[in-house]
Amino acid sequence: MSDTRWLSDEEQDVWRNYAAATSMLQAHIEAQLQREGGMPHTYYEVLVALSEAPGRMLRMSELADARLSSRSRLSHAVARLEANGWVRREACPTDKRGAWAVLTSAGFAALEAAAPSHVETVRQSLFDALSPEQVKQLGEIMAAIRANMSPSCEAAMKQCPST
Q1: DSSP state, 86?
Q2: From CA 57, how far away is CA 89, in angstroms rounded?
Q3: C-alpha span between 46 and 64 (Å, rounded)
Q4: CA–CA gap between residue 147 and residue 20 (Å, rounded)
Q5: How far is the C-alpha of 101 from the C-alpha of 116, rounded, in Å?
């Protein structure tokens, strides 16, 4: 006897629509940012996190946690952002192994240039399709999913901190 809790027909339809919609939305946003901002969405998110941090700087470990990214993936992204002159790393004076990621003026300018068309793409692709009540419901749904997933994601990140 199987313990598998199979999806109902309605759940199957919802799951497939969700998977298709999120894939399409991510691909659309990725293409827009590459075309108009000259950067992948991952880099944009790093720049946003740094722009919102005090002093426009975060420890690399905090930045990885904020972006729900592994430290090695984040390190690779920051290396590319450094090559563009958008971010610089600074040694942490209190922890020889730690480093800070600092948003440069050029990085902030790149973010400012990319943000308007990115926000318009998000608005047109996601929010314009929904009523105000649906936006509220979507926010509640995504918060519930995130709260449900957070403990298992945090545990997985602790098991594999360097990946």
Answers
A1: S
A2: 9
A3: 9
A4: 22
A5: 24
φ, ψ for residue 96 (rounded to 5)? -60, -30
Nearest by Cα to 61 from 108, 102, 101: 101
Alpha carbon separation from 51 to 5, 54, 105 (Å, rounded): 44, 8, 10
Q: Which residues contact 64 (CB under 8 A, 6 or more apart)?
A: 70, 71, 73, 74
pTM (2 d.p.): 0.86
Convert the pLDDT of each residue in 16-30 to its tens digit: 999 999 999 999 999
CA angle 131, 136, 138 (to 5 degrees): 90
> 119-128: per-residue pLDDT in tens?
999 999 999 9
At 135, is the secondary structure helix, strand, or coil? Answer: helix
Cα gap 134→139, rounded to integer Å: 8
